[in-house]
Amino acid sequence: MTTRVRVDTSTPGTPVLHFTRRYEHPRSAVWAALTTGEALSRWFPCQVEIDARRGGALTLTFPDEAPETAPITEFDPPRTLAFRWAGEDLRWTLEEDGEGCVLRLSNTVVDPAWTANTAAGWDVCLDALAAALDGRPRRAGAGPDEELIARYRTVLGTE
């Protein structure tokens, strides 16, 4: 399973990360993993509650932190989920691909210096999503390590 990632820097000061990953699971299963709190909490980097509808929101709770609200900006089951989190716009799309599906994620990055860290974080999350879909346990560790961040700095040319 490979993840393709690129960074769009056409808007000065606002890089947009684009991820593409194919999962060997039907779109309905991946959609459920994106839009139900219990499933999201298995692979997202925090505890999640979601009011999955246009105008709804995600409530994201990291350990020892106050909950954050991420308003849903687009909701088109089972194709598109978009929300605004901490000033960044995230848009998830799913398209059928044979027996599986292709997930695309775009993420605007508020702080360009943080682009490689954000990419590495999503890499870890997309692996955790694959594990959750496969019924495998999540890997130990909460986030990306320095080696993965350094690799993304090189791949994305953000050194």
From TrEMBL:
Pfam families: AHSA1. Coiled coil: none annotated. CDD domains: SRPBCC_CalC_Aha1-like_6 (cd08899). InterPro entries: ASHA1/2-like_C, START-like_dom_sf. Residues 25-133 form the Activator of Hsp90 ATPase homologue 1/2-like C-terminal domain. Belongs to the AHA1 family. This is ATPase. It comes from Nocardiopsis sinuspersici.
